[in-house]
Specification:
By secondary structure, this protein is of the alpha/beta class. It has 13 helices and 17 strands. Helix 9 runs parallel beside helix 10 and helix 10 packs parallel to helix 11.
Length: 402
């Protein structure tokens, strides 16, 4: 069994790399994994491994000499180079790897200059450039990669200009533009990408004007619109995306009117609506989403009336009602499949012991609450901490005492 590099000494990682390279050469394996060995260069030449089709060197400082060796591996179809410390000029050594169909460069710093060396890799179907800050100019060099099906440009700061260069990549099924500052103008590049099933647009401030460009993307099953300022008008443009299974519209202030437009998205199994001011009326509009398994409604002030509207969502497994202005947990007794529950803030005169004893419940975080006669010191310190065992032990002790 292969040991985890985390538990190896520096010398052991070096020896493991040598052994893997030697075995690959002797057995003519077409796959070599040197990932996360924290190497500085390669301990043995890999340029002779001309037969390689898959190479993973992520988590190593490959360096110029190592990159020169990669340049001759022209049969490579998949190359994983996450967090290898590569800069713009290092990319020139990869420019000749034109048989690549998959390239992962997450966590490097190739910038717009480095992106130009990818322009000839026209066989690519999957490309990950997360965090490389290629900018709008760098995105221009990707415009000819017409076979791409998956593209990750998260935190690449491509802006509206860069988004415009992507409009011709019509084979895309997955596109991550989270934190890329594309705005409403950049969203205008999206309507033609009709094969998309997965789209990440978190923190792009596309607004309601940009949201209207999503209305025709009928194949979407996953959509992240966290923090885009779309409001209720923007939510209206999502009403026809009937294939959505996962949706995040947190921090968009869509209000109860916006929640109404989501009522028809009956295929949803996961819905995140942090801080959307939907109130009790908005919660009522969600009551028909019977396939929901995950629902995040923190900071929505739905109140007890809103909680009663959720009682029929019996498929729920994960529910967050932090800062929701509720004081009655009893409607949640209907959620017989609930596994995880998060609650921060609120005053509950009745701690509702039966809820915490639901057989399905496996994890619960309760913090900054007044929960009836439950001592504050057994509650969680924050929403990441589980206090379910402590709650159950307390209620058991109370029962025995009575």
């Amino acid at each position: 069994m292969t040991r985890d590099p985390f538990f190896m000494t520096k010398e052991e990682r070096f020896e493991a790399a040598e052994q893997r390279i030697r075995t690959c050469a002797e057995e003519r394996n077409d796959r070599l994994d040197l990932g996360n060995l924290e190497l500085h260069g390669f301990p043995a030449p890999i340029s002779r491994l001309k037969h390689l089709k898959v190479l993973i060197v992520s988590g190593n400082k490959v360096g110029p000499e190592g990159l020169k060796q990669l340049a001759g591996l022209t049969q490579l179809q998949s190359l994983g180079m996450r967090y290898c410390g590569c800069g713009p000029e290092d990319m020139r050594f990869l420019a000749g790897l034109t048989n690549l169909v998959s390239l992962d460069l997450e966590g490097n710093d190739i910038g717009s200059h480095g992106a130009q060396y990818l322009a000839g890799m026209t066989e690519l179907t999957w490309l990950n450039l997360w965090g490389n800050e290629i900018g709008g100019e760098g995105a221009r060099h990707l415009a000819g990669l017409r076979k791409l099906k998956g593209l990750n440009l998260r935190r690449s700061h491509i802006g509206a200009e860069g988004a415009g260069h992507l409009r011709g990549l019509t084979e895309l099924t997955s596109l991550d533009l989270d934190f890329d500052r594309i705005g409403p103008e950049g969203a205008q590049a999206l309507p033609g990408l009709t094969k998309l099933t997965w789209l990440g647009l978190a923190s792009n401030q596309i607004g309601p004007e940009g949201a209207q460009n999503l209305a025709g993307l009928k194949n979407l099953t996953t959509l992240n619109l966290n923090e885009n300022g779309i409001g209720s008008e923007g939510a209206r443009h999502l009403a026809g995306l009937s294939q959505l299974d996962w949706l995040n519209v947190s921090q968009n202030n869509i209000g109860p009117e916006g929640a109404k437009y989501l009522a028809g998205l009956t295929q949803l199994t996961s819905l995140y609506m942090y801080g959307d001011a939907i109130g009790a009326e908005g919660a009522r509009h969600l009551s028909g989403l019977s396939k929901l398994k995950t629902l995040f409604l923190a900071n929505n002030e739905i109140g007890d009336e809103g909680v009663r509207s959720l009682a029929g969502l019996t498929a729920l497994e994960d529910l967050n009602l932090s800062h929701s202005g509720i004081s009655d947990l009893s409607p949640l007794l209907h959620l017989k499949r609930l596994k995880k529950f998060t609650l921060q803030g609120g005053v509950f005169l009745d701690p509702c012991p039966a809820f915490w004893r639901l057989p399905s419940l496996l994890w619960a975080s309760v913090s900054d609450c007044h929960l009836g006669n439950v001592p504050a010191d057994i509650l969680a310190r924050d929403t990441s901490e589980d206090c379910l065992d402590e709650l159950r032990a307390f209620f058991d002790a109370v029962d025995k005492a009575n």
